[in-house]
Amino acid sequence: MHHHFLIHKPHGYLSQFVYEKKRHKKLLGELYNFPKGTMAIGRLDEDSEGLLLLTTDGMMSEMVRSKTVEKEYYAQVDGMINEEAVAQIKKGVEIGFKGIRYTTKECEAKIIYQLPESIGEGRRIRDQRHGPTSWVSITLTEGKFRQVRKMTAAVGFPTLRLVRIRVGNLHLQNLKAGEVLHVNKFEL
């Protein structure tokens, strides 16, 4: 019998259970007593937060990582993002990936005017003296290394905070940072 989990990965944690390098890093196993063989499906980098799926079923992992499952992110960006920048993101922008130039696939994107309470304050990024910030929603079916961050930077609005709020039909909902929800299966 396989186990499946939804977790709100907090900022500052790696999306893994083992870290072989010398420096101490916070790992997922510190948040919950996961069964042996649990793996993260996809990753969120150490600076990102939000919905992460974990499972003991390798086949489920492959299905979720497929190019058909949407992943939605809320990105807090430096400055007041505008409709022109959002239109560029939707159309696809050129980013660097493994030393080569890559044009991202078309995607959904929109400005977020009212942030849901479930996102929470998060860690303090900076104060208003450094200028305004705004939020944008970006929904992808691909997931290159640090892609959302590279996309917002490519249109002149570097990402300050990144939260994955949805994978397929699974939503972050009201999970607080560090909370884990054991589910029977993933309804994608």
- Judged by helices, strands and strand pairing, the structural class is mainly beta
Main β-sheet, in a few words?
9 strands, mixed
- Give the integer mean of the pLDDT values: 91
Kindly, what is the distance between the CA atoms of the first and last residues, rounded to a whole number of angstroms?
A: 19 Å
| Silhouette | globular
Q: Bin the helical content.
A: 10-25%
Please report the number of helical segments.
Answer: 3
How many strands appear in the DSSP assignment?
13
How would you spell out the order of helices and strands?
A: EEEEEHEHEEEEHEEE
Strand content: 25-35%
Report Rg: 17 Å
Low-confidence stretches: none
Which helices and strands occur, and which strands form pairs?
Elements: E1 4-9, E2 13-14, E3 26-27, E4 39-41, E5 49-55, H1 58-64, E6 71-78, H2 83-91, E7 94-97, E8 100-103, E9 108-112, E10 133-140, H3 147-154, E11 159-167, E12 170-171, E13 180-183
Parallel strand pairs: 2-3, 5-11
Antiparallel strand pairs: 1-5, 1-13, 4-5, 6-10, 6-11, 7-8, 9-10, 11-12
Describe this structure in words.
The protein has 188 residues and is mainly beta. It is 13% helix and 34% strand. Strands 1, 4, 5, 6, 9, 10, 11, 12 and 13 form a nine-stranded mixed beta sheet that branches. Strands 2-3 form a two-stranded parallel sheet. It has a two-stranded antiparallel sheet with strand order 7-8. Strand 11 (159-167) and strand 12 (170-171) form a beta hairpin. It is globular and about 50 Å long. The mean pLDDT is 91.
Relevant terms:
188 residues; mainly beta
